[in-house]
């Protein structure tokens, strides 16, 4: 299956072979390759072969191969991780500019975490939830999920 694409999208051009890449795994619905601006050794991308800007824009079948590919890559990268703690990595998928998405084509990063200073550096601004507010949100979401 060829890429359902946008003519201007860099990832669509990579899938079609118009831009070279260090391809790792390709299936009917997805394509993976090494990132050329990596956060750490082994940083890879997995992209669906359907041009959708955000996750909710994709037909479900284009997501079927994503997690199995990420798992295979994580297993393969295990042998390149020198950390005494063993294999550590992040899987990251951003949506929209406020969500730190730069390329408007759904993509997943597999980012090995070999040391404290490489890979993904995360600051998580968590705060205690108000359980009354959380309960209202829960009910609202369940209603939307039923529709």
Key traits:
147 residues, alpha+beta, HIT family, subunit A, 23% helix, globular
Q: What does this molecule look like?
A:
GO terms for molecular function: adenosine 5'-monophosphoramidase activity. A motif (Histidine triad motif) lies at residues 105-109. This is HIT-like protein. It comes from Ascoidea rubescens DSM 1968. Residues 10-121 form the HIT domain. The chain has 147 residues and is of the alpha+beta class. The chain has one domain (10-122): HIT-like (HIT family, subunit A), CATH 3.30.428. It contains three helices and five strands. The chain has helices at 10-15, 66-77, 131-146; strands spanning 23-26, 30-34, 44-48, 89-92, 108-112. It has a five-stranded antiparallel sheet with strand order 1-2-3-5-4, with helices on one face. The longest helix has 16 residues, at 131-146. The model has no long low-confidence stretch (mean pLDDT 90).
Number of domains: 1
> In percent, how much strand structure appears in the residues?
15-25%
CATH-assigned fold name: HIT family, subunit A
Overall CATH architecture: 2-Layer Sandwich
What is the helical fraction, as a range of percent? 10-25%
CATH superfamily caption: HIT-like
Beta strands, count: 5
